[in-house]
Amino acid sequence: MCGIIGYIGNKNARTILLDGLKRLEYRGYDSAGIALITENRLKVFKKAGKISNLESIVPQELSSSVGIGHTRWATHGKPDDVNAHRHTDCSGKLAVVHNGIIENYQELKKELEKKGHRFSSSTDTEVIAHLLEEEAKNKGFVKGFFSAVSKLKGSFAIVAISLENPDRLLCARKDSPLVIGIGEGESFVASDVPAFLQFTRKVVFLEDFQIAIVKKDSVEIYEFSGKRINFSPVVVQWNLAQAEKAGFKHFMLKEIYEQPRAVADTISANKELFLKNDVFDKNFNKIQIVACGTSYYAGLVGKFYFETFARIPTEVDYASEYRYRNPVVDKDTLV
């Protein structure tokens, strides 16, 4: 899963964002990016590959006290510089980072294009930025954010910043984790606690269908409906190693407990495939699963289920070997 980090306070946001992204590297990613508000401008940097690639293009002397960052694992659009997160609107005054899947992004994109919006990437996340721009035209940044979030379908953890409202981060969560860190005269937002644990242990875990307005010295939480919610921060006692394991004794135990969410995320990310009856109505004579590592073992489980319940012969191959052999596949093989 991708990583999110946001900061607002009095320290150097460049350093905090880059360090936060490095602490989230265990989540896996193929590109990274940050957006900083500085000198009345929104400056954005993004790069495919390692965070060190991104770090090399962000000027060390850059001064900013608010920004957002993201490590991306591609779902919509190939992993490259253009599709890397953060994404901006047409005006270049709004920036957004996002984890999850926006299921109705194609419909929203068509509607926004009819209204004159121009897209530079093939990601579902960029739709959020343009939708927020559209909703904020007459409603302002905060009310526009509430309105934009209400139109999204799917799973998401979103953090947005605005050049015209540089004193706040806006956040929303539905089916994708997001946590707020409360410091002394500074606040953090992240997909996981390790991103900011060195600065504060006082945290608020956002729940599904909640929106947060995060300032350097205050946090407000609302339901999507607009109703304000009372909350009490908790103090995490984990050290950094424990935080990466979400408090579990070891990674294996953590991953066991993550299985229900992982299955739900997988189905959500591939909902169109699961819902397209024409895919599975077709009379396939064979199923070919291509995978590596733990995915290979998951493929063996898939082979068991496909053959047991669908009665379709299924083969599982290592991807690194499959590409070099001459497999027997035809138009009636599902790969």
Average pLDDT level: 87
DSSP strand content: 25-35%
Q: Which blocks of ≥5 consecutive residues have pLDDT under 50?
A: none
- What would you report as the Rg, rounded to the nearest angstrom? 21 Å
Gap from first CA to last CA: 24 Å
Number of beta strands:
18
Chart the SSEs and their pairings.
Elements: E1 3-8, H1 13-23, E2 31-38, E3 41-48, H2 51-55, E4 66-72, E5 87-88, E6 94-102, H3 105-114, H4 125-150, E7 154-162, E8 165-174, E9 179-182, E10 187-190, E11 202-205, E12 210-215, E13 218-223, E14 228-229, E15 234-235, H5 240-244, H6 251-269, H7 271-275, H8 277-281, E16 286-291, H9 294-310, E17 314-318, H10 319-322, E18 333-334
Parallel strand pairs: 16-17, 16-18
Antiparallel strand pairs: 1-4, 1-10, 2-3, 2-4, 5-6, 6-7, 7-8, 8-12, 9-10, 9-11, 11-15, 12-13, 13-14
Task: Give an overview of the whole structure.
With 335 residues, this protein is of the alpha+beta class. The chain has helices at residues 13-23, 51-55, 105-114, 125-150, 240-244, 251-269, 271-275, 277-281, 294-310, 319-322; strands at residues 3-8, 31-38, 41-48, 66-72, 87-88, 94-102, 154-162, 165-174, 179-182, 187-190, 202-205, 210-215, 218-223, 228-229, 234-235, 286-291, 314-318, 333-334. Strands 3-2-4-1-10-9-11-15 form an 8-stranded antiparallel beta sheet. The model has no long low-confidence stretch (mean pLDDT 87).
What's a concise summary of this model?
32% of the residues lie in helices and 30% in strands. The chain is α+β, with helices and mostly antiparallel strands and 335 residues long.
